[in-house]
Design goal:
The chain has 16 helices and 21 strands. By secondary structure, the chain is α/β, with parallel strands linked by helices. The strands form six sheets. A seven-stranded mixed β-sheet has the order 14-15-16-13-12-18-19, sandwiched between helices. It has a five-stranded parallel β-sheet with strand order 9-8-7-10-11, sandwiched between helices. The radius of gyration is 23 Å and the shape is globular. It starts with a helix and ends with a strand. The mean pLDDT is 98. The structure holds nicotinamide-adenine-dinucleotide. The site of nicotinamide-adenine-dinucleotide has 32 residues, from α8 and α9.
């Protein structure tokens, strides 16, 4: 077991790759431009990263298209693609420590989470889709005796994935797995705030046997690399995870270019509803704290609105506040740390701005509200809980993406559902009750892609992940994800 001193030692010895990966090789940006990759742990520059733009996008798309046309991946026997992707997943696990360290240095999450969650979960995801490759069958339509109508799935072509920084490798893996399993060529644009693991795994993908041009990585900014990818006339599909604001731009880019398929996994402001008949308030409160404080609250599915029925409000809040106070931010490289750094100074300002807005609008600050560990040079915020929040307040309506909980008191289950559904988002929701009928009725009434009953953030690769309303379109994970990366074809054969 490494101590925090070991991790710091390893971090000092690291010189992360910062170049793009195009057509099987690491290359600098055509323009030669780079940007500083800054660690939110202490403000140190940890790498120079290629700042790619339209010229690099062109090279990557050309390579991806060429590989697709050649059939070097799409036309390989399914069991061969399965073998290669399983090897890729194994290589991720073999490099678990290195990848976890990169993830933690780059975006500030605790090293224990990177080791236990991010890297193994990414590997499991890719292995799961690899296993699916030779187990999915196409269909024959029931058209009658004199005709044969085949319904087959084909890879869509060149898929570009544009992903955020909160779970850099996991969000990428949710797209890499099904897109490559379906036989596409793939271009990954990681967030400029967390590009390092994406760049590193490109070499592992090549080592596993993924042919040149099939897996490319373009680090860079949204308004340059991201926009050029989304506007490119030869990209067939954009698989996007990020904010609702940028998601809407993706739809515009598609309309202005080639009507490429656009799949959106966007923001959330998820209601976590605890009713007075909840069977176990200790468990519910512990889950409520973890639903907002895990990953520093930088979670699309964070339970950022705690909606509590009045009779149990004070008891629940007391327990949640106690949990928050036990979770002070620590050095992310210390294996004992449970709450790490906020991804960068911009996000830190955003979070602090929301905390100010909560105070200004008259919500009651029960705990937290301050920056922490200022001496470190990094970006840290105390876990923060507001009570007395009205549904119309900014902190109740907008996604904060930080460790800030807005607690809203309601009088009954109907009001809880009304308040729960009152935002533009519809990603996740939870209900805590011992009444099975009420749980089912509320699960039906909540306009969310995922509803948890007596739990929060239950997770398995077999289950779809995604949202209603302005939380997005389509679903990551599960076999449903193949819908995003395949086209349906019908082939009629006259047998008369
Ligand atoms: P963001 O929208 O700022 O950026 C996401 C990606 O889009 C980045 O790679 C960025 O470089 C790129 N981008 C930004 N502007 C662009 C532009 N004009 N053109 C093309 N690309 C552009 O989001 P973020 O701050 O990185 O991530 C946080 C958001 O992601 C939150 O809203 C969160 O809820 C959401 N998220 C959703 C899910 C989900 O599954 N629904 C999962 C994780 C995160």
């Amino acid at each position: 077991m490494n101590t925090y001193l070991d991790w710091h030692e390893r971090a000092r010895g690291l010189s992360p790759e910062g170049r793009a990966f195009i057509d099987g090789n690491y290359v600098g940006a055509v323009s030669g431009a780079t940007f500083d990759c800054v660690s939110p742990i202490d403000g140190r520059v940890i790498a120079q990263v290629a700042s790619t733009d339209a010229a690099d996008v062109d090279l990557a798309v050309t390579a991806a298209r060429r590989a697709f046309e050649r059939g070097s991946w799409a036309r390989q026997p399914p069991r061969e693609r399965k073998r290669v992707l399983l090897r890729f997943a194994e290589l991720l696990l073999e490099h678990r420590d290195e990848l976890a360290l990169l993830e933690t240095l780059d975006m500030g999450k605790p090293i224990s989470d990177s080791l236990a969650v991010d890297i193994p979960s990414s590997a499991r995801c890719i292995a799961w889709y690899a296993e699916a490759i030779d187990k999915i069958y196409d269909q024959v339509a029931p058209t009658g005796y004199d005709a044969l109508a085949l319904i087959t799935r084909e890879p869509i072509g060149v898929v570009a994935a544009i992903v955020p920084w909160n779970f850099p490798l996991i969000m990428a893996a949710w797209k890499i797995g099904p897109a490559l399993a379906a036989g596409n060529s793939f271009i990954l644009k990681p967030s400029e705030k967390s590009p390092l693991t994406a760049i590193r795994v490109a070499e592992l993908a090549a080592r596993a046997g993924i042919p040149d041009g099939v897996f490319n990585v373009l680090p860079g900014f949204g308004h340059t690399a991201g926009q050029a990818l989304a506007l490119h006339m030869d990209v067939d599909c954009i698989a996007f995870t990020g904010s609702t604001r940028t998601g809407k731009l993706m739809l515009e880019y598609s309309g202005r270019s080639n009507m490429k398929r656009v799949w959106l996994e966007c923001g959330g402001k998820s209601p976590n509803i605890i009713l007075a008949d909840c069977a176990d308030l200790d468990r519910a409160a512990a889950a409520a704290a973890s639903a907002i404080f895990f990953n520093q609250g930088e979670m699309c599915s964070a339970g950022s609105r705690l909606i509590v029925e009045a009779p149990v409000r004070d008891e629940v809040l007391e327990k949640v506040v106690a949990a928050a106070r036990s979770l002070l931010p620590g050095d992310p490289l210390d294996p004992a740390t449970r709450l790490g750094a906020i991804v960068d100074a911009v996000q830190l300002d955003t979070v602090m701005g929301y905390i100010d807005a909560g105070k200004d609008e008259g919500a009651r600050l029960l705990t937290g509200g301050n920056r922490a560990r200022r001496d470190s040079g990094g970006c840290y915020v105390e876990p923060t809980v507001f009570s007395g929040v009205a549904p119309g307040m900014k902190i109740a309506r907008e996604e904060i993406f930080g460790p800030v909980l807005a607690a809203i008191s309601v009088n009954d289950a109907d009001e809880a559902v009304r308040v729960g559904n009152s935002v533009i988002y519809g990603l996740a929701a939870a209900v805590w009750t011992r009444d099975l009928t009420r749980a089912h009725r509320m699960a039906r009434a909540l306009r969310s892609g995922m509803v948890y009953v007596n739990c929060y953030d239950a997770d398995d690769i077999t289950v779809p992940f995604g949202g209603f309303k302005q939380s997005g379109t389509g679903r990551d994970k599960s076999l449903h994800a193949f819908d995003k990366y395949t086209e349906l074809k019908t082939t009629w054969i006259d047998l008369s």
